[in-house]
Amino acid sequence: QVQLVESGGGLVQAGESLRLSCVGSGRTFSGYPMRWFRQAPGKEREFVARINQSGGSTSYRDSVKGRFTISRDNAKNTVYLQMNSLSPEDTAMYYCNAYNAATNYWGQGTQVTVSS
What we know:
This protein is an all-beta fold and 116 residues long. 0% of the residues lie in helices and 51% in strands. The protein has no helices and eleven strands. It has strands at residues 4-7, 10-13, 18-24, 34-39, 46-51, 58-60, 68-73, 78-83, 92-99, 104-106, 110-115. Strand 9 (92-99) and strand 10 (104-106) form a beta hairpin. The protein starts with a strand and ends with a strand. The relative contact order is 0.32.
């Protein structure tokens, strides 16, 4: 069992930055690839970024490439999402996700609101 708690969201202006954090419980945190998703009102949840267990491999949705960076610190059981050059289109609830072939664990989400 892995419990995930996100933090770091808030209200910012377009062009500003935020860093989201997701802290996981349990000694097995480092064994999971991690993903960030987001969901805007009235829209489906969408993939944002992924990082493998060691942190050596990452991938992103096209619209955030070059602006967002996913990273992890397994010693702190934490995954991060650094978000730069934010735009109103990035406004959403952001969720972290630990997964493997058998299961998915989700946090409760943290709200990011970007004003124009």
